[in-house]
Design goal:
By secondary structure, this protein is an alpha+beta fold. The chain has helices at about 1-10, 20-40, 270-285, 290-300, 315-335, 340-355, 365-385, 390-400; strands at about 60, 70-80, 85-100, 105-110, 130-135, 140, 145-150, 155-165, 170-180, 185, 190-195, 205-215, 240, 245-255, 260-265. It is elongated, with a radius of gyration of 26 Å.
Length: about 400
């Protein structure tokens, strides 16, 4: 244990009356290294080696090949996320009206794969397999159409579902499509997408558009990433959170790629762990272990995608970081002899230091976080000298401080 304390002391003096110049020097050496390290890391990882395989997004239907006088007056798209977060059941309703003086009959189209002919990023081309189409509440048959060859898919033709529909002049015709759409991502974050820009093929603007995602939990800035990206996208601006719904609304929309919907969310299983841990804390508020599990659940929900040793840096994540720290503080106070909670707290503080210290987040005291991190590591090793995770973290901090 003495050797480990010497290692810790070499990184940052652990006594509270440490010399300010020594502490500042150690802090600056680690802080500068972390900045250099983060600058070298790509903010948006290259898809070919870092991003998860994509899934075909939901898409507005397209008219036939000819110019049309049919306008999409309103659309409502409801995507109900499955309890595991891996898919969503989509129901999209479109109110169409022929603004011309002549009847139009056409074969409208719906893309069964990536509408722009791309792949999942790994030259695979999955398809939507359970599409159903309704015209004025009556289900109609679809036929498979083949479009242009796709270079990313071994030159196989782009698959479309075609369906016949007639638009009498001046009358409303209601189209509805229902299907299952996959999500994708790296835990703990997945993304759900919907393409609006294909609606530009109809006449004029889209009168109004409501996109609604129904989540299996109460939505907050902690579980819906309203800012920032993970390397495979972020949430489209303009989202509102209400109850269990995330919503977007548009009026007189001339859709472009900038309007396409993307929702980045925390997988339900991670949020369920937080809810369960909260309930246990409410039932046993003086049980340090329950507080420790709560701190751990918060930490896992804000860790960078793919298990990186950094945290999300958005406001919602920072609020959860503070809650995690409060929970760990309770855990190490009420259950002071449990080495794992001391280590868990140290890990959180180090991750916070590497993330919020780097961006110089207002209100985050980086030197204090690092000092407390090292103190918690020292306590961990006093209680369990062979704590492997603590020893590994010490080696990492020592390596950083040597730069």
């Amino acid at each position: 244990m003495d050797a480990q304390k010497m290692k810790l002391q070499s990184v940052f003096p652990l006594n509270k009356k440490r010399d300010a110049r020594t502490g500042n020097k150690s802090f600056l050496s680690i802080f500068v290294f972390v900045i250099v390290l983060l600058l070298l890391l790509p903010r948006t990882p290259a898809r070919a080696d870092a991003a998860p395989p994509e899934a075909p997004p939901g898409t507005n239907p397209l008219p036939g090949e000819e110019i049309t006088q049919v306008r999409m007056e309103a659309e409502t798209v409801t995507m109900k996320l499955a309890s595991d977060g891996n898919s969503a059941r989509v129901e999209a309703v479109f109110h169409m009206r022929n603004l011309g003086s002549a009847e139009e009959s056409m074969q409208a189209r719906f893309p069964l794969s990536f509408w722009d002919g791309s792949s999942d990023g790994y030259f695979n081309c999955p398809e939507i397999g359970d599409l159903r189409v309704f015209v004025d509440e009556r289900e109609v048959p679809t036929v498979r159409l083949e479009g242009e060859p796709r270079e990313q898919c071994d030159d196989t033709p782009m698959p479309w579902a075609g369906f016949d529909v007639t638009f009498p002049p001046g009358e409303e015709v209601v189209l509805k499509v229902v299907y299952t759409q996959s999500t994708y991502g790296y835990e703990p974050y997945f993304v759900l997408r919907y393409i609006l820009e294909t609606g530009a093929g109809w006449k004029g603007t889209i009168g109004s558009a409501d996109i609604i995602v129904e989540m299996p939990y109460e939505v907050t800035p902690g579980n819906i990433l309203l800012s920032g990206e993970t390397g495979y996208g972020g949430t489209t601006p303009g989202a509102t959170l209400e109850g269990r719904q995330v919503r977007w609304h548009f009026d007189d929309l001339e859709p472009t790629s900038a309007d396409n919907i993307s929702l980045l969310f925390v997988l339900p299983s991670y949020w369920q762990k937080i809810d369960e841990a909260r309930q246990r804390v409410e039932q046993s508020p003086k049980d340090g272990e329950m507080w420790g599990f709560l701190g751990l659940a918060y930490k896992r929900a804000i860790r960078a995608a793919g298990g990186a040793f950094f945290l999300r840096d958005d406001d919602g994540a920072y609020a959860l970081y503070q809650k995690s720290a409060e929970a760990y503080e309770k855990a190490v106070t009420l259950d002071s002899r449990d080495a794992d909670w001391h280590y868990g707290y140290a890990e959180l503080l180090w991750m916070g230091y590497a993330t919020y210290g780097f961006i110089q987040r207002p209100g985050f005291d980086a030197p204090a976080a690092l000092q407390r991190c090292l103190e918690e590591l020292a306590t961990t090793l006093e209680l369990r000298p062979d704590h492997e995770k603590a020893l590994t973290l010490i080696e990492e901090i020592n390596w950083f401080s040597s730069w």
